[in-house]
Amino acid sequence: MRIIVTTVLVLINFILQTTLFQHLAIQSIFPNTALIIAVSYALLRGSKEGCIVGILTGLLFDVFFGTAMGYYTLLFFAISYFTGRSQKNFYRENYLLPIIFCTMAAGMYETFQFITELILRKDGNILFFIIKILIPTIVYTAVVTVPIYRVLFGLNEWLELKEKYKYRLF
Amino acid sequence: MIQFWEEHKKKIIAIVAIAIVAIALFAGGKNLNASALESVIGFVVTPFQDLTTGIESWVDSTADSAKDKTSLLEENAQLKEDLAKLQDENKRLEQYENENETLSSLLKISQKYPDYKSTGTKIIAKNPGVWYNTFTINKGTDDAVSANMILIAPGGIVGKILESGATYSKAQSILDSRSAVPAMSIRTGDLGVVKGDYTLMNDGLCKMEYIDGEAQVAVGDEIVTSQLSDVYPEGLSIGKVTKIETDTNGLTKYAIIEPFVDLKHLDTLLVIDKNTLEEAP
For the segment B98-118, what is each residue's pLDDT rounded down to a tens digit? Predict the structure, then answer.
């Protein structure tokens, strides 16, 4: 059940992100909702499931938009793993931590792409990167994280309740 | 299961990471058609992307049709005028073509701007994010579209196809920073390479690099693809020069190019097959 719901969620997000959300972009910047979902999953369910969601999303990105297989997969995998490790230390009901983690993850994601661009093509313009890409992405991500995390949190509660009934855990 | 995960956490993580890197190294730099796994994922995802884009354009057109009548009438009159102008021009061009054919048959040279075999296609999904400009189109190997074919739109070149699945293809526009198109100025014949640049991408511009320091390229010159490319056929228009600067080394120049095609708002494209040129007599 959880596997099906998660897969469908990731696919729906991918489809929306590549088509509809492009129109909501401000100055070509729109937060990476796939990353927000992977990070939220890692926070809600721990590093193992976070990693699986991260790999699944990264694979989709690689298949459709990457020139070499594995780049996005590794990036999503690493980010969701490191967020997942901190899962046990906070209350899931709190909104502040997911926002902080998602903005950090988004910042890391963009910085990695910048570094790749810098190393492979010597094409670095750090002022442009910080002003035009990094700061708008972080601000926008912080705003968009709240509704997405709320939906995922609700979904997770519902699934956990179902699982409790199924395995007679109370 | 969970216990197993807890016990071997580090090992599993390391193995997965190494596996991904290995796949990346083995599959790196490939420019082939999609593998079975990719085709399967494409088969599942692309119909929905197609559907979503379809709904979007339907909403767009419905909203447009609700526009007030007078502006539509005005637009209609304007379009009729344009049409008449274009028809006139078309007739003139047909005459030129006939003349060209007779003259070139007299001279026994092959046609420089032949008719390529082309297929119409639509963009169904775009790469999210600001770094790269790749997109998915709704034609694949089933419609005889394959890797390294060229995408054009009315006005000029759009990009090339990176990879084809059965029902979809992955394409890269000329604004992508990984793209490089050998080009030349049509007026002076100076050579260069048109590359994408992420700092210019959001404005829909690209950069022509490696122009000789003494080249006579000027603002407003038309840039076309040169004969130096394996992928891009010769003589397709790219855009016009809007700015010229000398590089920091002082030996070469670079120019900012504004493509003739509005690459930010594209939906319908043509795929052309360069190889049909060689088959033609």
Answer: 888 877 777 665 555 556 777
